[in-house]
Amino acid sequence: xxxxxxxxxxxxxxxxxxxxxxxxxxxxxxxxxxxxxxxxxxxxxxxxxxxxxxxxxxxxxxxxxxxxxxxxxxxxxxxxxxxxxxxxxxxxxxxxxxxxxxxxxxxxxxxxxxxxxxxxxxxxxxxxxxxxxxxxxxxxxxxxxxxxxxxxxxxxxxxxxxxxxxxxxxxxxxxxxxxxxxxxxxxxxxxxxxxxxxxxxxxxxxxxxxxxxxxxxxxxxxxxxxxxxxxxxxxxxxxxxxxxxxxxxxxxxxxxxxxxxxxxxxxxxxxxxxxxxxxxxxxxxxxxxxxxxxxxxxxxxxxxxxxxxxxxxxxxxxxxxxxxxxxxxxxxxxxxxxxxxxxxxxxxxxxxxxxxxxxxxxxxxxxxxxxxxxxxxxxxx
Length: 381
Ligand code: COS
Hints:
Number of helices: 11
Structural class: alpha+beta
Shape: globular
Number of domains: 3
CATH topology of the largest domain: Butyryl-CoA Dehydrogenase, subunit A, domain 3
Distance between the termini: 33 Å
CATH class of the largest domain: Mainly Alpha
Largest sheet: 4 strands, mixed
Low-confidence stretches: none
Radius of gyration: 21 Å
Bound molecules: coenzyme a persulfide
Number of strands: 10
Mean pLDDT: 98
CATH superfamily of the largest domain: Butyryl-CoA Dehydrogenase, subunit A, domain 3
């Protein structure tokens, strides 16, 4: 048993930390305020190889595993949760293609996403199919005369949706079969009949766009089917297992960042004639925050290690995400509390971290869904 990062992982951590502090942190408040997509930092993340983590070099990736992804995402989330979310959610696209794509699909679509600066998106959720993902109604009917799928339906809350150069759409190729009739189909931006609609105004992670995607008689070649027909729900669920580790990493990074801010402030802030770090109430807050964050770290790393090893990890990914996201809310709340009135002001990053933390309890599966996943793994259905 070894709890140490390898030398290469330590170096990645140092490089991403420096990159985050020099390039990401200075923009964090502005992109939160304006809600603009930070194209310049996405490009820099691409140049640094971060969008290609976990992807072999032959497809334009930079290698590594889910552990390297956790390192990169959590380091960025320390200073800017929206930028970490952009990276983490984008990475689902090349990973699904790597696992389920044909050689031709891999060669065509992975390099642009891994190292070419193209944003990829994953579209499962619909207005009436959120936690109940199997209730999705978007259809993809095969037109045999042209060998094209014709997509109709609306996806919502799609991260990166308005920026994406290509989207993995989960649609019913055999609607009467429910989840067993769902397939994964790649749709490129600019395909007639595919438009991105409303971009949501959110509580947090403003710079990570959340868009509606509309398919109106959108025709794509049959060759855009990813994996076997009817296996879309499996593909979505197994992709979400990985994505949940990514959200766990986001939550972990947010908690690390908030704890650091709380420690710094507690040492600087003088009340009652001494730094508030000398007050036992504050000390106990800090001790609890640090202990819970350390526990969250090891669940996230354990689930990443299991996935990297190709071992079963559905339950562990759910546990890691559930625990890390609840911890991020807990830690950002106490860190803000330690800052008192200043924490509520936009001059300090805490109010942003507090808002950003909340989404980690909701997206890629709510906390309640993770309890379903965990309890089913332990008790059966
Ligand atoms: N990996 C691979 N396959 C999986 C899986 C996983 N982690 N989890 C379930 N499946 C498979 C099952 O094996 C089953 O296969 P068969 O039909 O061949 O038997 C199929 O998927 C259906 O599984 P299940 O019956 O468990 O589906 P449910 O409708 O009960 O839904 C939950 C399961 C609730 C866990 C699922 O709908 C879910 O994760 N919801 C949350 C959605 C979400 O996270 N959305 C975030 C946004 S994504 S844009």
